[in-house]
Amino acid sequence: MSQKVRVRFAPSPTGPLHIGGVRTALYNYLFAKKHGGDFLLRIEDTDQNRYVEGAEAYIIEALNWLNIPYDEGPGKEKDCGPYRQSERKSSYKKYADALVASGNAYYAFDTSEELEAHRKDHEAKGKTFIYNWHNRLKLKNSLVFSAAETQQKIDNGEDYVIRFKSPENETLYLRDIIRGKMQVETSILDDKVLFKSDGMPTYHLANIVDDHLMEISHVIRGEEWLPSLALHVLLYRAFDWDAPQFAHLPLILKPTGNGKLSKRDGDKMGFPVFPLQWKTTDGDIFSGYREDGYLPEAVVNMLAFLGWNPGTEQEIFSLEELVNTFDLERVHKAGAKFDPEKTKWFQHQYLQKVTDEPLATAFKELLQKKNIAAETKNLVKITSLLKERATFVGDLWEQGSFFFEAPSNFDAKAVDKAFKPETPRLLQKVISILTTAEDFSAENLSEHIKAWITSENIGFGKVMMPLRLALVGEMKGPDVFEIISLLGKDESIARIQKAITFIG
Ligand code: GLU
Is there a domain that residue 56 lies in? Predict the structure, then answer.
């Protein structure tokens, strides 16, 4: 690649960023970093009607949380700024005018009522109205009016738009890095509006002008923009600019594979579709990966695999490994099914990578919210025992609340299985071993209790099951001797005593 790699993520701030958008940003980031290039953020806010307060800040916060920050963009101004299209507003008109001057675009004065009437009229005849070579010479535009008439209308303040004049009869040969070669007949294209009567460019014009001015080398974006590719390539040609290379990413599908994953699916199906929680002005809350306890590394790894794979068995990739391995040529064409269970699997893997100390600190914060004060030393040990059963920090509590609160009741099914007539006598013996034990380490307790069980030929289950039930309240948790050691002598004995009383 001779030209410097420069890619951009160009969201419209119309709401929170959906994970599809996050994946687009991620692939742009990975591609840029792999090729030592720049990753830009451009805010495409030319449609003021759809502007949503807070959306831009949300996008930036999400990229930062995921550790995929942009090199250039709002707040990181470099030579190509400003990076919000609303702030570049005044620069687009001259490009639209230049296309009119070169015969590639024209002024159109048709009112929306007139266009609507044409549409209805066509529909009644079972046809679709397309504003293009078929009928543009029968409509109200500068291809029909003389130059003087056109100027008169503009001077009179009549509303007009500027439309692109699509070629009438040409086969366009397009190339997409992911999809390969494609052909489009220009005769099916409509003459898209480039510049609106409100003085704002449309997405198409602003996007091409900015990609050119910002020296974008590769446009990596969602598949929904594929139908615009022909127009965009024609616009580059009309301006006599080199076009960037294009890569259109596959759709992200619902877990059922049935259609596109929508913004509403997540909370309906019980998983977030947004990186961060989003609160609407109406007070609705959409859940986010961050607030749901996911690690950003897990979300990044999961998203990287939604539409791409390295072609090997390896699934766990750090961001750095992704940068090194990622390749647009290996992105699939077919839609990628979103898999909430796989997402949890990634989270579980990444939680295991967090070392015990910081995990214990996170656990401590959770305990503090429950007004439970815990000693850090024990907490590190408890965390290390519970970790492999946990996917989220919150699971440490689910799995290990008994370390901090004595069970208030015993699981009924487990009671049937574990508490037998001879159980009180056996537990009493355990109490006496604990009472005399000087070394309260798990190893020492294990050695003594096991020696007694073996010497009396009791059978491990007869002691270990009721013991666990007495301490935990159900048949779960890590090694029983670790539990006793951590609970300490008094608390362990008290819990066992309570079980004896319960059985009695
Ligand atoms: N503003 C467009 C969007 O919201 C950008 C499309 C593109 O990347 O060209 O998706």
Answer: no
Burial of 386 (C-beta count, 10 Å sphere; 0-12/13-18/19+):
buried
Q: What is the CATH number of the domain that holds 290?
A: 1.10.1160.10
- The average pLDDT across 248-264 equals 94
In tens, the pLDDT along 274-327 reads 999 999 999 999 999 999 999 999 999 999 999 999 999 999 999 999 999 999
Q: Could you tell me if the CB of 11 is within 6 A of ligand 1?
A: yes
Task: Please tell me the total count of domains within the chain.
Answer: 4
* Residues 388 and 416 grouped into a single domain: no
In this prediction, what percent of the chain has a pLDDT beyond 90?
Answer: 95
pLDDT, residue 2, reads 60
How do strand 161-164 and strand 105-108 relate by DSSP bridges? antiparallel
Question: Which among 249, 278, 293 is the end of a domain?
Answer: 249
Handedness of CA 104, 110, 116, 121 (dihedral sign): negative
CATH number for the domain that contains residue 210 = 3.90.800.10
What is the distance between the alpha carbons of residues 395 and 397, in angstroms, rounded to a whole number?
5
Q: Residue 355: helix, strand or coil by DSSP?
A: coil
Specify whether 325 is located in the same domain as 199. no
Distance 10 CA to ligand 1 centre (A): 5
Which atom of ligand 1 is least distant from the CA of 9?
A: 8
Average confidence score pLDDT of the chain: 96
How would you classify residue 477: left for phi > 0, otherwise alpha for psi between -120 and 50, otherwise beta? left
> Same domain for 235 and 99?
yes
- d(CA 66, ligand 1 centre) in Å: 20
Percent of the chain residues past pLDDT 70, beyond the cut? 100
Whether 263 is catalytic is yes
Does residue 420 sit in the same domain as residue 392?
Answer: no
Distance CA 415, CA 385 (A): 25
Which of the residues 89, 260, 263, 337 is marked catalytic?
A: 263
Model pLDDT for residues 20-72, shown as the tens digit of each residue: 999 999 999 999 999 999 999 999 998 888 899 999 999 999 999 999 999 99
Query: Probe ligand 1: pick from 44, 224, 236, max atoms within 8 Å of CB?
Result: 44
Q: Distance (Å, rounded) from C-alpha 348 to C-alpha 345?
A: 5
State the Cα–Cα distance between residues 350 and 317, nearest whole angstrom: 10
Q: Domain containing 450: what range?
A: 412-503
Do residue 96 and residue 226 come from a single domain? yes
Q: For residue 220, give the ligand 1 atom closest to its CA.
A: 8
Residues 189 and 230 placed together within one structural domain of the fold: yes
Residue in 225, 231, 236, 245 to alter for ligand 1 test, most ligand atoms within 8 A of Cβ: 225
